[in-house]
Amino acid sequence: MNAMRLIEANRRALARSEDPVAIVVEVWQSQALAQAIGSRLAVAGPPELRGEALGLSEVGGRACGLLDAPRLGTEDIRAARLTETGDAQEVLLALDQLFGEVGIALVGVAMGAADEGVYWQCMEAIDAADESRDRVLEMLRRLAVRERGLPEPDSAAGPS
């Protein structure tokens, strides 16, 4: 399935989720999707994105480990249905939006947490969502630099 369709399905499911457990499941799904998309971009994406894409994949995997793993069958894990990423910029913009929504949802869960363990799990998941979003934003920046035909700042040799 196309990455955009999976991201949109994730966004809709997150928006419909009302109880904390359902929200955490959708946050987990979001990070699993980021892991899968990052892996795809690292292998077959634009060369200037590959390092950050690998980082996104690693963060997504680490974030999935932070959260209580949902009891889902393989067929219920959206990321397992990823077959193509499509346009990298479009996918990254959608992931940016998804992670903004994930952060907001996690703040809501953390604020209502009666258990200190759930609160801290949410704080760690918020940090992971922020890190995933940072990776996505860096990849978008690199695409913009490439589109303008400018050299990367650290590859530009200036006078000494």
TrEMBL record:
Write one Pfam family the protein is assigned to.
Answer: DUF6099
Protein name in the entry = Uncharacterized protein
Origin species: Streptomyces alboniger
